[in-house]
Amino acid sequence: MKNIKHLLQERAPELLRAEIKLVRHVIKNKRKYPPELRTFVRSSKANFAEWQCVIGKKSNGKHLRKCDLFVSSCDLPDGRALFTGVFRNGSGNSPPTLALGDLSPALADIYRVLYRRERARGQKPDERYLFQFRKDSRFADLERRVVIVWGAGARAWVQNFDSNNPKRILPALGEPRPIFNEGYDD
User: Fold this and answer.
1) What is the pLDDT of residues 27-55, one digit of tens each?
2) How many domains are contained in the chain?
3) pTM of the full structure
4) Residue 96 domain-assigned?
5) Does residue 185 belong to any structural domain of this protein?
6) Beta strand residue intervals within the chain, DSSP E
């Protein structure tokens, strides 16, 4: 049975010497992700890629700052996730704090609404980092075709890559699946 280590080794063996994180995007949490954001993320590859670069400092920004690259996936039912690419961290250890002017107008508007909602609930809005992630094109043909088995007990959004116990992957699907089971087809 193949696993993530095999996937990396076949395409880019030098990556195995890097500090690698596994990222599983879960956007079902309606309180954390308002409908406007879920719609924006699901509407195009470009929107998904832009959203993926905005990471909360309190949540997982501290983990991703210390990695060279990450294997990205989107949550599926039954402890599985759909592979969405391998990304290099071009920000180094100190990505800039997010400035809404750095985002597209649509995503900036969504974060303004999100910040207002957080303040209205009496919460201090989570500061966010704006990472400069660059997609590794050597994995492009496998995007949305490979399923990663996270396991039923997987709760962490970001995990360390463990080369001694890597996550299993299922054989590549014939046609790419839509991310989050709906959304863009481009």
Assistant:
1) 666 666 677 887 888 788 788 888 877 77
2) 1
3) 0.77
4) yes
5) no
6) 20-25, 54-56, 69-76, 80-89, 128-130, 133-135, 147-149, 158-160, 168-170
